[in-house]
Amino acid sequence: MIYGFDIGGTTIKGNFAFDANGIGDPVRVSTPARDFDAFVEALEALIAQAPQRPKGVAISITGVVDPETGRTICANIPAIDGLKLEERLADRLGAPVIVANDADCFALAEAELGAGRGRPIVFGAILGTGVGGGLVVDGALVNRGGGYAGEWGHGTILATRAGDPPRDIPHFACGCGRKGCVDTVGGARGLERLHAHLSGQSLSSEAILAAWAAEDAAAKETLGVYIELVSAPLALAVNVTGADVVPVGGGLSKDFALVAALDGAVRSRILRRMDRPLVVPAQCRTEPGFLGACLLGLRQFE
Fold first, then answer.
1. Can you give the pLDDT at residue 286?
2. CATH for 118-281?
3. Cα–Cα distance between 151 and 174 in angstroms, integer?
4. CA torsion, points 220, 222, 225, 231, in degrees to nearest 10?
5. DSSP state of 179
6. What pLDDT is stored for residue 302 in this prediction?
């Protein structure tokens, strides 16, 4: 048996698992984000409810493990930011621990239980509040030792003109400290920023997509520019990784018309030619980070 956690800045979700077919719904508690001792106690309290001590603990976090130092980079949970978390938690919990990025865990869940089943190379793309991704090859997470593989949302790569007729697009500042990242326009907040720049309208991403579906002229222009800006770097990611399928998760993935439009645009930009869809909605719609953490733990410790 292993114990899996998906840990965000506000909520810890966790439960035990004996095998991939027996992963139950997670139990939820609040995240003690600024107190490490309280953070560990919250994990211990959940583990204590399991029927036996786990062979190992697997954790999905909204952060990254530096592959050179082993230290966690997790700004929204200051209690664990900068720590060698696997070592610290293993000592406190009395069991080996593995920590992975939540987008990586999403990709692993899709590769084993979702849209990537049977495909050798799965590139999971997140279009949520922001943009993220993870890469799974032959069923194994590339970032097993930590790292940034799959993070297509960052890097100064966005075009500065897009649309028909072309419009000038500034390189917006990104939370990572750079400018012009896919994250600045690709997620829900980015879509809202892009629409405000092009139309002068301040609308939610849901309202923009609803207006697009209703053939609103301003929304159609925004989505045309959005698809052009986002599909080019995603196509580059496909060319570089050789992905056989790109499951898309996050809030924007709920709009299947948007995912289908991205699929057509990406397939028109890659070297590989295929008649089947490549960019598809994720199938693990509920708690993919938790599912991926459990799968990672089962592979590592069982």
1. 85
2. 3.30.420.40
3. 14
4. -90
5. B
6. 83
Name the token pair of 262. 């991205």
Neighbours of 91 (CB within 10 A): 10
Instruction: Say if CB 4 and CB 15 are below 8 A apart.
Output: yes
Mean pLDDT for each 10-residue chunk of the chain (302 residues)?
97 97 94 98 98 97 94 95 97 97 97 97 97 97 93 93 96 94 97 98 98 98 98 98 98 98 98 96 94 97 89
2-105+286-301 and 118-281 share one fold: yes
* Residue 151: closest CA among 234, 269, 68, 262: 234
Number of residues in the chain: 302
Contact 187, 129 (CB under 8 A): yes
Residues 105, 86: Cα–Cα separation, whole Å = 16
pLDDT given for residue 285 in this prediction = 84
Place of tokens 């992975």: 100
Helices 217-241 + 205-213 axis angle, to 10: 110
Fold of domain 2-105+286-301 = Nucleotidyltransferase; domain 5 (3.30.420)
Determine the Cα–Cα distance for residues 150 and 112; give it in Å rounded to an integer. Answer: 17
Domain assignments of the chain as residue spans, ordered by start: 2-105+286-301, 118-281
Query: Among 60, 83, 43, which residue's Cα sits nearest to residue 6?
Result: 60
